Amino acid sequence: MPTNFLHTPIDYLNGVGPARAKLLKAELGISTYGDLANLFPNRYIDKTKYYKINELVPDSAHVQIVGKVTHIKTMGDGRSSRLVATFIDSTGSMELVWFKGQKYFKDNLKLNVPYVIYGKVSKYGSKYNIAHPDVELLKEHRSRQQSAMTPIYPSTEQLTKRNVTNKMMVRMMQQLFSEVHNSFTETLSEQIRSQHQLVDKNTAMYNAHFPKSAALLQQSIYRLKFEELFFIQMELLLQNRIRKTRIKGYAFEKVGERFNDFYSNHLPFELTGAQKRVVKEIRADMGTGAHMNRLLQGDVGSGKTIVAVLTCLLAIDNGFQACIMAPTEILAQQHYQGVSELLEKTGLKVSLLTGSVKTKARRVIHSDLEDGTLNILIGTHALIEDKVVFKNLGVAIVDEQHRFGVAQRAKLWKKNDLPPHVLVMTATPIPRTLAMSLYGDLDISVIDELPPGRKEIKTVHRYDKNRLAVFSFLKEEITKGRQIYLVYPLIEESETLDYKDLMDGYESVVREFPTPQYQVSIVHGRMKPEDKDYEMERFVKGETQIMVATTVIEVGVNVPNASVMVIESAERFGLSQLHQLRGRVGRGADQSFCILMTSYKLSTEAKTRVETMVATTDGFEIAEVDLKLRGPGDMMGTRQSGVLALRVADIVKDNDILAVARETAKELLQKDATLALPENTSIKKVLQFLQSKKGLWKYIS
Ligand code: ADP
Ligand code: MG
After folding, report:
1. What pTM does this model have?
2. What's 5-45+154-180's CATH class?
3. Given CB 3.0 to 4.6 Å as the disulfide criterion, which of 102, 477, 495, 550 pairs with 83?
C-alpha cells in the first residue's frame, strides 16, 4: 500500500522551510501534512458582512468596516504612546489605535482612500475603537478571491513573536489543500453517516478550513465533533466491557433471608424511588458473576447509608462479609453507630476498626473476621492494612472516595481471591454529562431525590459589615437550642495569613459569645488529630454551641442539631466546596440556614458562585454551573482524561452531540459486538490505531 500523502513531513510544504517547520513542531506539535490538516480553526469570521459605524454596539466582537482615514496623530508618551487614526464612514466616526508598529502605520496609511478594516471593537468613553485592526485597501480587498468565512487558527506567543500570522497559517493551509486531493480516510461507517446525515470525511476536512458556505461549515464541524466524541465513547464502552468480561466477581445470586427480613421488618422509613432504583442496579450488577465497580452519587442527605447497608446484606445473604471505609475516624464512628442501630434487631455482627482501637480489642476483631463471625467491618483505612484478613470479603463500600488514593483502593482488591465488589459513594456530584464520558471503568448510580419532608436550607448572602446582625441571629438560634458552624477559608493549611484570620475570627467570636453562657469549639489543620477529635466530639455531644473551623469539617460529619452554617470569606471557596459545607446543616427536623459572608469586592465569578448557592440547593445543578465556570480541566479527577484532549468538540457545550454519539456507539456494539461486519471495518481500524494512544487526529490510514 502506498504511504498516504498526509505522512509527508511538513518541511516539504511550499513556504515552510526547516526553521518554520521546527517552530510549528515545537509550538503546535505539527510535523506532517496530516498534523497541519488536523489543526482546526478556533473560529471563523464572516467576511461577507460589512458593518456601518452606527451599527456598532459595545460588544460587537470582530467586525469589518469600509471607510476612510481622515486624520492620524501620535498621543501620549513612553509606555502610553500610541498612534490614533480617525476613521469615518457615511454614518459616523471611530478610532483605530496602534501601540506597536506605530511608525509603519504612520508612514504607510493613506488618507481619504477607501480601506477595509477588521478587528475587535471596544468602547472608550463615547467613542468606538479598534486596537491593531487588520487594514487593507478596498481595491485589494475586492481583487482578492476569498472564501466567505475566514478561519482563525490557534496561535501561541512564540508564533506571534516570530511573525507567523494567521494570514500565513491560512496560506499554508491553502497550499496544503491544493496538494491534498481527498486523501482523508473515512473513519465512520456508511450506515452511521446516513443515519445521522453526516458529511463525508473529505468534505468535512475541506470545509472546516475553507467553508464553501455557512451551512457546509456547520455540517462539517458537526461531523468532526461527532467523530471525536463517538470514538471516545467507543473506547470507554469497550474498556468497560473488557472489565466486565475479564474480571470475574463473586456472584451474589440470591436475595435471601437477611435482606428480606430487614427490608420487610426493620426499615425505619420507606425508601425513596431513587433509593429503590439504585438498590436494584446494584443487585443486578452483583448478581452477574462480573466484578462490580460502581460509583454512587448522591447529594448530602440523599440517603446513601441505607443503600450501603442493603448492599452489605446482599453480600451476607450469599455467605460473604462486607466492609465500609470512611476517610476519617469520626465519620467511621458515625457510620458504625448508624449501621449498628439499623441492624440492631438482625443479630448481625458489626465492628469498628480505626487507628485508635486498642490492641486487645483489635485482636478480637481480627479473629472474628478470620473465622467469619464478624459480618460487617466499618473503619478508616486501617481496615485495608495487610494484617486485616477477612474470611470471605464480598463487597467493600468506600465513602467519599476522593479522600482515598488509588493505591489504597488497589489494596482492597487483594482482600479475597477474586476482587470484592466495590461501591464508591460520593456526595460530590459530577455533572451527568461529564460522568458518563469520564468513567469508562465505573458504572454510575445516582440518587437524585431527597427523602420526603426535608426542609430546604435557606441560604442568604450578607456583607461583612452586617456581621453584628448576623451574630444576633446566631444568638437567637442558640437560644432555641441549635448549634452553629462558623467556617473560615484555609485553603492551604500552611497559609499563615489564613491562620491569622481564623484566630482573629475565633477571638472575636469568643468575645461576642462569652462563657459561661456560650461554649465555642475550634478545629483546624494545625491541631493534633486527638485534639481535633476531642473538640469535634464536644460539638457532636452538644457541649459546645459554636464550632469555629476550617474546611476540615467539610466531609460527612453529621450533627443533626447544627442548623446554621456561616461561611466567612465565601468568595474564596469554590462552588462544590460551598455546597459540601452547606450540606453539614439541614440534617435535622428544624429549619436550617446557610449564611455566606463576603466583602463588597466580588469578582464576576465569585458573584455567580454566591448567587448560584442562594438560588439552588440541587447539587447537580451546582455542579453544572461549576463546570461552566471552571471548565472540565479543574473538575476533580478529570485532568488525565482523554475528554480534555478534545480538539473540536467541547464537553460542556456539545452535550447534545455527546449524547447522540454515545447512543450510536452503544447501538453499534449491540449489533456488532466485535466489529466483525465489513461495514464496520473503518471504525475497527481507527479503534485499533487508538490503542497506540496517539489520538484520533493522528490517524491517517
Ligand atoms: P448521605 O449519607 O447520603 O448524606 P444519609 O444516609 O446519612 O445521607 O441520610 C440522611 C438522613 O436521611 C438520615 O438521617 C437518614 O436516616 C434519612 N433518610 C435516608 N433515607 C430516607 C428515606 N427514604 N426516608 C426518610 N428518611 C431517610
Ligand atoms: Mg453519608
Report:
1. 0.66
2. mainly alpha
3. 102
